[in-house]
Automatic annotation (TrEMBL):
Protein name, as recorded: Protein TsetseEP domain-containing protein
Highest taxon in the source lineage: Eukaryota
Species per Swiss-Prot/TrEMBL record: Dendroctonus ponderosae
Keyword Signal: yes
Residues annotated as signal peptide: 1-16
Keywords: Signal
């Protein structure tokens, strides 16, 4: 930011000193701004792309967290089923049909239970990728505006247009600096806030327990009939 202020003071000094701006002054300023903006845009693009790595890591960890919690939550079901199988085996009974039916119902329940949190994580993934894409486009918009100014600068051949474009370049540089800063700040802020949002994404353990308990009850009834 300090470099931007020093640059603008130096550039505006030509005008504030009362000196006339000629085409050579304009071209010299353009070359400096062209170099500055292109370098900053290149660095911004690298920073923006780099943000995809921690973002994907956060999202993948969130998926693992949800699936891990499902595994933990399902342990009472499997413990109960294993106990029922051991007891049936000791009695010489075959309850495999009942158990298999219950397990199939549990697998279906699992898909239903994780569907909402996984969809939420997928939505954050889409949102994050859209943010990265939009930020990269925002950064490049500074280059697009620079190229438009380049055409005008190259076509300028008299002091009048030189002074007008000189002022336009100074204004553009300040605007471009803010644009490029925002192109990195926006996705960085999103990334910093993402873990807190993902921490709220989880399965409904109480609802899951209630539903797999009903499956266990159905298995028990099946073994009696």
């Amino acid at each position: 930011m300090l470099g931007k202020i020093v640059f603008l003071i130096a550039a505006s000094g030509v005008l504030s000193s009362g000196l006339k701006v000629d085409v050579d002054d304009l071209l010299a300023l353009y070359e400096r701004i062209d170099s500055s903006v292109k370098l900053t845009q290149h660095e911004a693009a690298i920073e923006i792309r780099a943000l995809t790595i921690p973002m994907e890591s956060f999202l993948d960890d969130a998926v693992k967290y949800v699936m891990g919690n499902l595994t933990v939550a399902a342990e009472p079901y499997w413990t109960t089923i294993a106990s029922m199988e051991a007891e049936a085996e000791a009695k010489g009974e075959d309850i495999s049909a009942c158990v298999n039916g219950g397990n199939e119902e549990l697998y279906t329940l699992n898909e239903t239970i994780v569907n909402a949190p996984l969809e939420k994580i997928a939505a954050y993934r889409t949102e994050g990728n859209d943010m990265i894409y939009a930020s990269a486009n925002l950064a490049y918009s500074a280059i697009e505006e620079l190229l438009e100014l380049e055409v005008q600068v190259k076509a300028c051949s008299d002091p009048e247009c030189a002074e007008e474009l000189y002022n336009a370049l100074i204004e553009f540089h300040g605007r471009a600096s803010e644009t490029l800063e925002a192109s990195v700040d926006n996705p960085t802020t999103y990334l910093n806030e993402l873990p807190e949002k993902l921490a709220l994404v989880n399965i409904d353990a109480d609802d899951y327990k209630e539903k797999f308990t009903a499956i266990i009850d159905a298995v028990v009834i099946c073994t009696i009939l």
